[in-house]
């Protein structure tokens, strides 16, 4: 997209880009009153539709890479006043994790329940993945993420069974949250694994990859 840069990982440009020119910081733009600069930032940075966050990253106006000063002033407007959307497949929280790490640099929270950033989550509950769910909850327990999988009602299609699955996952997330400061992850993980049969009762897709891991473990022991 013309005039945009692609942001693909937390380490990509948020603190490493250098000034394109020493003259930029002393240009007339920086001499304008702050209120006028903010109006210009909003005209350039704000998008009319949600900005999709995918496995390849998301688009960010290239003006933010012009100089450190412009980036510092403009990034909060970009994150606070735009809307973003993430569609989670296979319960893979990678995109949410990367995006969260980026905005946390500005002391902003990304969460479905309480968020500084206008972010819309969709979780495809038709693609259950037990190992990915555990990784998601591990990051939630470690405060690397501020949210758990979105409620099925936010998905394009939902069945009655989805509500039961969400109840199990939500209870697992509550446990991970309550034990953040009381128990290390290895203990919490064993507690959460006790809920695995409940998910299997709703959808045997939650067994996917689990049997393969057990087979690999048996082979290692043989």
Helices and strands in order:
Blueprint: E1 4-7, H1 28-31, H2 34-45, E2 51-52, E3 58-61, H3 68-81, E4 83-88, H4 94-104, E5 118-123, H5 130-141, H6 160-178, H7 185-193, H8 196-202, H9 210-221
Parallel strand pairs: 2-4, 4-5
Antiparallel strand pairs: 1-3
Helix pairs in contact: 2-3, 5-6
Q: Care to describe what's here?
A:
There is one protein chain. The chain is mainly alpha-helical and 222 residues long. 45% of the residues lie in helices and 10% in strands. It has a 3-stranded parallel beta sheet. Helix 2 crosses helix 3 and helix 5 runs parallel beside helix 6 (160-178). The longest helix has 19 residues, at 160-178. The model is unreliable at 9-24 and 210-217 (pLDDT under 50).
Shape: elongated
Strand order of the largest sheet: 2-4-5
Uncertain segments: 9-24, 210-217
Fraction of residues in helices?
A: 40-55%
The biggest sheet, with number of strands, parallel, antiparallel or mixed sense and barrel status, is: 3 strands, parallel
Average residue-wise pLDDT: 81
- H/E element sequence: EHHEEHEHEHHHHH
Quote the distance from N terminus to C terminus. 54 Å
Number of helices: 9
Radius of gyration: 21 Å
* Category by helix and strand content: mainly alpha
The percentage of residues in β strands lies in 5-15%
Give the tally of β-strands: 5
Organism: Septoria linicola
Protein name: F-box domain-containing protein
Region (Disordered): 203-222
Biased composition (Acidic residues): 206-222
